[in-house]
Amino acid sequence: MSTRFVLIQPSHAGNVGAAARALKVMGFDDLVLVKPRWEDVLTRDETVERASGAVDVLQKAREVETLEEALQGMTHVCATVMTPRDFGPPTFGPREHLAGVAREGHHVAFLFGSERYGMRNEDVYRCHAALRIPVSPDYGSLNLAAAIQVIAYEWRMALGGFELPPSPGPQAADAAAVAGMLQHWEEALVAIGFLDPAAPKKLMPRLNQLFNRAQPTPEEIHILRGVAKAMAEAARKPKP
């Protein structure tokens, strides 16, 4: 299975660079330009700047004269459209269509039309499916690079996505630290008259369970000990 993104007659160099960036962050690198406006579009300053480090994708990208050349080896071709075409391929949302395509193991090409006029009907007709990104009915104008990013993301998710590295959560204090803090609190609560040591009932076991659920960090244990110390000191001060 392979994936190719095809830009038909792109007219803005910056969009080509942004497209390379969109592909790289989703793990794709096969970019083909059909008759771009600028012959040197892959090396123009604006292109390289907008690629933001995805220069390797630009270096691998190809420029061809015809769509036929761009689609060589592809077995499933998806147009991207704003409006369905009469007599054209069926139109789907990306998510609903791409999950099935991923299971079939096709070599997939995604076609994007010119920024100026979109995709021509004759180019849409040769596709197996048309993909329409769900957008607000009040404003559906997507920048070319933004549309490429959405499709690249949906296709990556259909292929299984990337496994995110585990997030290193805060380190919880150990049981000894919690026990020491609770003893400190017990002494402070007695000092302020909140806890009667002759009849403690279940206060301290309940506080123990509370802090076990909270899983305080060592820094938080330090703060709680500071609160207990301040309570005890306040209780020792003579009343006016």
UniProtKB/TrEMBL annotation:
GO terms for biological process: tRNA nucleoside ribose methylation. It catalyses: cytidine(32) in tRNA + S-adenosyl-L-methionine = 2'-O-methylcytidine(32) in tRNA + S-adenosyl-L-homocysteine + H(+); uridine(32) in tRNA + S-adenosyl-L-methionine = 2'-O-methyluridine(32) in tRNA + S-adenosyl-L-homocysteine + H(+). Residues 4-153 form the tRNA/rRNA methyltransferase SpoU type domain. Its EC number is 2.1.1.200. Keywords: Cytoplasm, Methyltransferase, S-adenosyl-L-methionine, Transferase, tRNA processing. GO terms for molecular function: RNA binding; tRNA (cytidine(32)/uridine(32)-2'-O)-methyltransferase activity. Coiled coil: none annotated. Pfam families: SpoU_methylase (PF00588). It is found in: Cytoplasm. InterPro entries: Alpha/beta_knot_MTases, RNA_MeTrfase_TrmJ/LasT, SpoU_MeTrfase, tRNA_m1G_MTases_N. GO terms for cellular component: cytosol. It is an enzyme of class 2 (transferase). Catalyzes the formation of 2'O-methylated cytidine (Cm32) or 2'O-methylated uridine (Um32) at position 32 in tRNA. Belongs to the class IV-like SAM-binding methyltransferase superfamily. RNA methyltransferase TrmH family. Homodimer. This is tRNA (cytidine/uridine-2'-O-)-methyltransferase TrmJ. The gene is trmJ.
